[in-house]
């Protein structure tokens, strides 16, 4: 399994099994990183986590792993979801009838995101910048 470029161990590590409760379990594991009720990224991190973990449950045979790093205060929180499926996900060109919006949702709520191909699968990552979002909130007041 991979980690961020600086080699730091993640603050949160959660094994994703084929269980419909996996997304709720992953969100629960992130709770200690998102304790401030006014945290400008908390809801978006939880939503992106739900979407990415659900994709692993829905589209892979052997699960994966979620990791998160939160080096506060001035570095974005990084969320990674790794699995062994080599298919690189993409946002569909046309809106599907049911489901299929996971990456479009991640794209809408994350400050940055991407897919890193691995020798045995891929890592889908998303970053959430508290400082930038707080500055946007402060400037709109």
Describe this structure in words.
- With 141 residues, this protein is an alpha+beta fold.
- It has one domain (12-140): Histidine kinase-like ATPase, C-terminal domain (Heat Shock Protein 90, 2-Layer Sandwich), CATH 3.30.565.
- The chain has 4 helices and 5 strands, in the order βααββαββα.
- It has helices at residues 22-30, 42-59, 102-109, 130-140, and strands spanning 12-16, 64-69, 77-83, 112-118, 121-128.
- A 5-stranded antiparallel β-sheet has the order 1-2-3-5-4, covered by helices on one side.
- Strand 2 (64-69) and strand 3 (77-83) form a beta hairpin.
- The protein is globular and about 45 Å long.
- The mean pLDDT is 89.
Query: If you compute it from the alpha carbons, what radius of gyration comes out, rounded to the nearest whole angstrom?
Result: 15 Å
Relative strand content: 15-25%
Helix segment count?
4
Structural class: alpha+beta
- Identify the CATH homologous superfamily: Histidine kinase-like ATPase, C-terminal domain
CATH architectural group: 2-Layer Sandwich
Cα shape: globular
Q: What is the CATH domain class?
A: Alpha Beta
The CATH topology name reads Heat Shock Protein 90
Question: Taking strands numbered 1, 2, ... along the chain, how are they ordered across the largest sheet?
Answer: 1-2-3-5-4
Question: What's the pLDDT, averaged over the residues?
Answer: 89
Major β-sheet profile: 5 strands, antiparallel
- The parts where pLDDT drops under 50 for at least 5 residues are none
How many domains make up the 3D coordinates? 1
N-to-C SSE string, H for helix and E for strand: EHHEEHEEH
Measure the end-to-end span.
43 Å
Helix content: 25-40%
Number of strands: 5
